[in-house]
């Protein structure tokens, strides 16, 4: 896990460039645009404060908005996950996924999709993470923090089915999802299994099949753009989560080529 921004290497660019339209002539190099997005993700700077070494911030934001709208970032994320699983000897798509949420503060200037998570005392938004047993992010969603985890995760099921493919058999989660969400999964012939620590235990206890979600959530701390929600739209918030996972998968690609 690198803690600073590094420009895309040739092998990393080769992994994601097939998903971008490189045939037509453009004013800006798409490789530089993607590098600029990854820089914003790492540094957490405002769009208007993007250093002059990068393309103009409006051009970078234009492509970010296009790629999040047409699903390019989701497709890149899905393909890199598949490639990384195959590199470690697994099937491209997972049969088991794990789900959990993270409540994060929302910048004071934004009132859209805001709520208060009274349990965690966070006034902001809640992120839903769906990962495989090695922590790769396959689906994500963002909503107001005052919404219940299980109910708010139901619209995420279609994204889970598209992202994980037909091999999916089971989803692990805590008690918050053992209700309407579990019933909605059953309609698609997918089992839900509650994974929680015994009630008699105290303090932190790693729970099999669920601790990987907590680790993925912890990885967001390496990306300054994700330490708080700065986005006016929840679609942008979700796209930054996919970009963070893309960055992690690209790091593994580079490490693999260096062996």
UniProtKB/TrEMBL annotation:
Residues 8-76 form the Insertion element IS402-like domain. Residues 92-242 form the Transposase IS4-like domain. InterPro entries: IS402-like_dom, Transposase_11. This is IS5 family transposase. It comes from Spirosoma soli.
């Amino acid at each position: 896990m690198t803690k600073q921004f590094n420009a895309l290497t040739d092998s990393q660019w080769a992994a994601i460039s097939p998903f971008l339209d490189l045939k037509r002539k453009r004013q800006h190099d798409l490789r530089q645009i993607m590098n600029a997005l990854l820089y914003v993700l790492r540094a957490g700077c405002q769009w208007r404060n993007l250093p002059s070494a990068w393309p103009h911030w409006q051009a970078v934001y234009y492509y970010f908005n296009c790629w999040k709208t047409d699903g390019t970032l989701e497709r890149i994320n899905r393909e890199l996950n598949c490639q990384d699983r195959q590199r470690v000897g697994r099937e491209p798509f997972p049969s088991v996924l794990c789900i959990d949420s993270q409540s994060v503060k929302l910048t004071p200037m934004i009132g859209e999709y805001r709520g208060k998570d009274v349990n965690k005392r966070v006034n902001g938004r809640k992120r839903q993470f769906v990962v495989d047993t090695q922590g790769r992010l396959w689906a994500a969603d963002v909503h107001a923090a005052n919404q219940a985890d299980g109910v708010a995760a139901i619209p995420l099921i279609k994204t889970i089915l598209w992202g994980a493919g037909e091999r999916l058999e089971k989803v692990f989660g805590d008690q918050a999802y053992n209700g309407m969400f579990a019933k909605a999964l059953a309609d698609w012939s997918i089992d839900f299994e509650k994974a929680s620590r015994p009630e008699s235990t105290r303090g932190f206890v790693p729970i099999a099949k669920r601790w990987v979600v907590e680790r993925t959530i912890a990885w967001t701390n390496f990306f300054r753009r994700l330490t708080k929600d700065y986005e006016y739209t929840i679609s942008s918030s979700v796209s930054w989560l996919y970009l963070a996972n893309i960055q992690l998968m690209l790091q593994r690609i580079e490490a693999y080529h260096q062996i």
